[in-house]
Amino acid sequence: MGPVIGRRLRRGTVTAAVAAAAVAALAASQAPGVTDVGREGPAAGAADTPPPSGDSATGDSPYYTDLPELKSPVPPNGGNTKQEAGLPVTVLDAYKKAETALNKDKPGCNLPWQLLAAIGKVESGQARGGRVDANGTTIKPILGPPLNGNGFAKITDTDRGAYDGDTTHDRAVGPMQFIPSTWATWGQDGNGDGEKDPNNIYDAALAAGRYLCANDRDLSVEADLHKAILSYNRSTDYLNTVLSWLEYYRKGTHEIPDGTGVLPDDRSDTRYPGLRPDPTPSNSPSSKPKPRPGSGADKPGNNGGGSSKPTPPSGGGSEKPKPADVDMLANAGTGDLVAKTGNAFGERVAVRALTESGAFVPKVKVRFTVSGDTDARFEGGARSVTVTTDSRGKATAPVLKAGQKAGKFVVQARVPGKAASRVDFEAQTLARVADALARTSDKALVCETGKEFADQVEVRATHKGKVADGVAATATMIKSATDASANDKGPYFKGADGNPVRTLTGLKTGPNGVLKLPKMYADGAAGTYLLRIVTEGGATLTVELKVTAPEPDATPSPSDSASASPSASPSASTSASPGA
């Protein structure tokens, strides 16, 4: 397990310190070899010792070691919007129904459905991302590797291949990865169809819940919770991983469509890159073909021509292995595709090419296409791009950038020529919005009739107290505070043709959230007028504009001065003349 631990520590931090301390405490409280009662597995004290066959629900099969994000931000509505927090709708329903059933039948167990989700995550990646039918049965059986003692517990066949299709060794089966012998004891009919199918998520979730509640455990008690998890797979690393997901899911989850869940990457056993839904495992311990009798190929050093070198195929050169065929594409960790207009999407679309058995397929061309009524484009302006999968079958599209058009659209990933190999990702471009507008100056806006306003209107838009740039806005000279229709008199803007315009559309706030309107002019009607600015998102500001009549000219004309001045009149002049 050393390399696995190293890989997990590189991927992120875990709650290992807390869990490991708890395991140590449990171990110290019990004598070596003490176990819980029944078939459910040994107590925590023996967690690091190899288990006898059948002593855990899964036979200690490999599991996914992927860990959740270090932080799991919860938005104001209480739901976690991270893609990893999305649970396929049918799978989530099965977990919750199992919790309800056990709350009724075993109220003292206090089983949280999030525990089932955590185990379902590490055992099968939530039924391979929710690839289940309407009844909750996996589209294809989910099987672990044969438990042949080669890196795993050795469990010879107990079900004659009835559950796992293997008549030589047992394999863990279904989304909760029960080994056949454990399922024979704990199997349940969770969906009421009269069958107990380990590949049905309703049946498997209820069985897992009852298994975890065995021995009158109270899962609200930490020691009982840890014992229950360790009974499922006797590994401290397994315990720590499940506890990490349990904590993550408790912070909030949301439903996603079946089949769109994130497919985990890391396994506790690197020989099996994914749980292999192989319905027809070989009945022979070795799948290596035997040579035909009499061909000479069964003799050491003889390939029929007396040479120790293999004979090249006709045409010369060595025969290259045929590349594996792609049977499906799966989401490879793409989160929510949401961006504001003009911004790059924070998530990149990524898929993984898989064979029918769940193995990765490298060097496969995957076509990513932006589809729908949108101006969003991949980096460089392309609407479609082709990417080749890497050695782990993963293809990641270039950065996707939102245009100026808000709305929903789809990014499609497909393997050209393979209609079944297709995944659609819903994306959304959100319009930038503002919830408040304010003038950048408190100077009164006054103008005489027939003249130009000395100052232009300038406002700043904000959203939740932060600068709101790129927000669409409209400015209108309105008739009154209660009538927002455009006025037909008073102040106006000038159009390109020089004619009066009293409504401006297509405005947008700048990088600092500031919007500066064009110059304004006054016609011949004096009075008080209103300018209303409205942004996307509903922010509204009404600005008062005053248009005044010209002031009377206080300087008298020469003629008026001459006629009005007493000294200017002949009589006054005469009377004022000395010696009159």
Automatic annotation (TrEMBL):
Top-rank lineage group of the source organism: Bacteria
Domain Transglycosylase SLT: 172-214
InterPro entries noted in UniProt: Ig-like_fold (IPR013783), Invasin/intimin_cell_adhesion (IPR008964), Lysozyme-like_dom_sf (IPR023346), MltB-like (IPR043426), SLT_2 (IPR031304)
Pfam families given in the database record: SLT_2
Stretches the record annotates as Disordered: 28-85, 254-328, 547-580
Any one GO MF annotation of this record: peptidoglycan lytic transglycosylase activity
Amino acid composition bias (Low complexity), ranges on this chain: 283-301, 549-580
GO biological process, one term: carbohydrate metabolic process
Keywords per UniProt: Signal
Signal peptide residue numbers: 1-27
Protein name: Lytic transglycosylase
